[in-house]
Structure formats: structure tokens, C-alpha cells
């Protein structure tokens, strides 16, 4: 079994991945799409990711609106959050128009 990475290192990696991919973590939490337990699970998953040592270099090369790389163990979670946030913003726009 591999050793897990440092919590704060991976917390920052997940935050940076969210920023680079345009995933608004704060909004996701505020709208009930991301619980504290889910957030902790994302950080924990990152801690065990074999690709994590390469993640900072990837993040440095991408500034915004990038797609979550296939190597990222949280790829699916980011996709779900992005879809929920997009759906929520579409609903908000349509209700303002009526």
C-alpha cells in the first residue's frame, strides 16, 4: 500500500484543480452540491493518487477553463460538480426571465 500525501498539499492541489477547470467549489458548497464530507473525500482521493506528483506541473501549464486531466482521480467528481453548477445557473437564468 502506498503512503498518502500530506493533507495540506493535496487540499491545495484540489483547490487549484478546481480553479484551473472553472469549478466553483464555494458555489457548489453553498448550493448544496458539495458537502464537507464530499470535499474531504476529494482531498483524500487526491492524497492517494499516483499522478499527484505530476499535478503541480500540469496546473502550472494551465491557467483557466482547462479540462480535468484523465489521470486525475477526482475527474468524475469535478465533472458532476460542473454539471450541477451549470444546471443551477441555467435554472436561475430561466426563472429571472419569467
Descriptive overview:
It is a single chain. With 98 residues, the chain is mostly helical. It has five helices and no strands. Helix 1 crosses helix 3. The longest helix has 22 residues, at 75-96.
Summarize the structure.
It contains 5 helices and no strands. By secondary structure, it is mainly alpha-helical.
Main sheet specs? none
Give me the secondary-structure category.
mainly alpha
Q: Mean pLDDT score, rounded?
A: 90
> Strand-and-helix sequence, N→C?
HHHHH
Cα radius of gyration in angstroms: 15 Å
Distance between the termini: 56 Å
Shape: globular
**Total DSSP helices:** 5
**Beta strand %:** under 5%
Considering DSSP H and I runs of 4 or more, what fraction of the residues is helical? Answer: 55-70%
Given as residue ranges, the uncertain stretches (5+ residues, pLDDT < 50) are none
Features of the shown structure:
single chain; 98 residues; mainly alpha; 5 helices; 0% strand; globular
Please give the structural blueprint.
Elements: H1 7-20, H2 25-30, H3 36-47, H4 55-61, H5 75-96
Helix pairs in contact: 1-3
Amino acid at each position: 500500500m502506498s503512503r498518502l500525501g500530506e493533507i495540506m498539499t493535496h487540499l491545495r492541489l484540489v483547490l487549484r484543480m478546481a480553479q484551473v477547470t472553472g469549478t466553483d467549489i464555494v458555489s457548489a458548497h453553498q448550493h448544496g452540491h458539495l458537502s464537507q464530507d464530499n470535499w474531504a473525500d476529494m482531498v483524500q482521493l487526491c492524497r492517494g493518487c499516483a499522478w499527484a506528483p505530476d499535478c503541480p506541473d500540469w496546473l502550472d501549464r494551465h491557467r483557466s477553463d482547462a479540462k480535468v486531466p484523465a489521470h486525475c482521480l477526482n475527474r468524475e467528481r469535478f465533472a458532476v460538480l460542473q454539471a450541477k453548477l451549470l444546471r443551477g445557473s441555467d435554472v436561475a437564468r430561466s426563472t429571472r426571465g419569467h
